[in-house]
Amino acid sequence: MEEQNKQILVIVSISSLLFLSFSAEAICVPKNTLEIHSHSPAPRPSTQSPPHLSARPPSPSTQSPPHASSLPRPPAATAPTPFNFSPSVKAVCEKTDYPSLCISSLAPFLANRDSPAAILEMAIKAAVNYTGATLAKAKVLSSDPSTSTIAKAYIADCLELYADAIDNFNAAAAAIPSGDIGLMNSMLSAAISDFSTCEDGFAEASEDSPFKEMESKLSNMASNCLAIAALLPLM
Fold first, then answer.
1. CA 40, 44, 46: angle at the middle one, nearest 5?
2. What gap in Å lies between CA 14 and CA 37, rounded to an integer?
3. pTM strictly above 0.90
4. Is the pLDDT of residue 50 over 50?
């Protein structure tokens, strides 16, 4: 009987140990651990829309351009100032055969000098300068291989005549201070003869003169000088 009680006591002890072991294991593991993991919602992708990107380029400014009247205007072009000749200069040129040529040829040389003698001096100087330009053209044509032999012969004569005309103009200018009207007239008339002689040579050979227009202007300039010289005793 005693032996049977011992066996029952041992069985009870083992059962108690097993019960205690099971209870301790249940305490260490939280009851709702599995529930948390099983019921936690899965993370969802964000539904927030990305910043809107416009496919259109920025619209041009709607501000209206400035009115044309508000824009700065360029300075108005001014008309060229005419030469302010004194009345005496105009009066002298009006006495010549070619008054417009007289005024235009005097323009580069007159500087507040309006006496008849000064006007004549400047008119002769203008004629000398233009004769020199014609002489330079003759030299170019004389050395040009394309110039015909006949033309070169007459151009050679003109070269001498133009040089002589310059000498005659200078002699007329030199006679101004002394008032030698006779010498002035003689030298100026000789210059006109030089130009006409050059032109006559081409006409006799039925050749077109390369100096026709220039010689016509030179003859007119010399004629104006004669007209101004004739006014010296009267003014």
1. 145
2. 36
3. no
4. no
CA neighbor of 139 nearest in space, from 163, 108, 106, 113: 163
pLDDT value at residue 233 = 76
Calculate mean pLDDT across residues 150-161: 95
d(CA 154, CA 8): 169
- Give residue 6's pLDDT: 59
Q: What is the pLDDT of residue 146?
A: 94
Identify the pLDDT of residue 161: 97
Greater pLDDT, 36 or 152: 152
- 209 is written with which tokens? 């003169």
Task: Find the helix or strand (DSSP H, E) in which 194 lies.
Answer: helix 181-204
- Classify 206 in phi/psi space as left (phi over 0), alpha (psi -120 to 50) or beta: left
Task: Answer left, alpha or beta for residue 179, where phi above 0 means left and psi between -120 and 50 means alpha.
Answer: left
- Compute the 3-state secondary structure of the chain and give helix, strand, coil in percent, each to the nearest 5: 65, 0, 35
174: Cβ contacts below 8 Å, ≥ 6 apart:
none
Per DSSP, the three-state class of 155 is helix
Could you give phi then psi for residue 59, rounded to 5 degrees? -65, 140
